[in-house]
Predict the structure.
Amino acid sequence: MPIIELVNATIYQRENPILSEVTFSINKGEFVYLIGKTGSGKSSLLKTLYAELPTDEGIVKVAGFDLTDISRKDIPFLRRKLGIVFQDFQLLDDRNVEANLDFVLRATGWYDEEQISNRIDEVLEKVGLKDKRKSMPYNLSGGERQSVSIARALLNDPDIILADEPTGNLDPETTLDVLKVLRKIAENGTAVLMATHNYGLIQKYPGRILKCEDHKVICTKVE
């Protein structure tokens, strides 16, 4: 059963339709690129998938939720099944890495101190930053900060990671490091949908592609 399934869906930017007849699915453990020019609808598509933008046309199912008929009270439960990674990290600069992750866990219903500590260790180990637990975000490199944001996205063991230009602010070497982390996450069973402008990255690490173009989403693959 797909983690994400869209059939003849319409994606809106504010009240204006920007993508129509959108049909694709993403299965468990898939790594998929989302590409397209600025303004083509990439971010609107991602926002629709985590229910920041509404849609009521076609079929839009994410992690077992029907987004064309989702109630506001169910949106937090949807988002617990998603991990969201942004270009600008969105870390809290007034607290260290551990406290950033602790904050998210407590906000999503974790209470046991030992379980919280163990989960923080687990996700930091997955992104290679277990030794940065007590570091402040402003003392980390851009790649390390993005890796912390990926760790944060993994906290509740999501079905899929939605990454919106996660390497947009990073240098080429760091970009490769972050991409490798995301691809390893997919290999371990969590689907990843990554929006990017970096076509060189796709050429170096080919994969399935969703391209937003002319108000459509075209499925293709670079070999």
Remarks:
- The mean pLDDT is 91.
- Residues 132 and 140 are 8 Å apart (CA to CA).
- The beta strands are 4-13, 16-26, 31-35, 59-62, 65-66, 82-85, 160-164, 191-195, 208-213, 216-221.
